[in-house]
Amino acid sequence: MGAVGLGDGGPRYVETARLLLGGGADPRLADRDGVTPLGRAERRGHTALGALLREAEQGT
């Protein structure tokens, strides 16, 4: 899940994240640095991806 936040945050990455979340990926799972996918998306300014991940975190 975290690798999605390393891209450009564009539509392909948002769709990839949506598919991963739909398949049961945990949006709260932090990487080895303790950063969640949402944290990484926010740091990189990926607003659409951040919104999707924020919604997923609230729903899980």
UniProtKB/TrEMBL annotation:
InterPro entries: Ankyrin_rpt-contain_sf. Gene3D superfamilies: Ankyrin repeat-containing domain. This is Uncharacterized protein. The lineage of its organism: Bacteria, Bacillati, Actinomycetota, Actinomycetes, Frankiales.
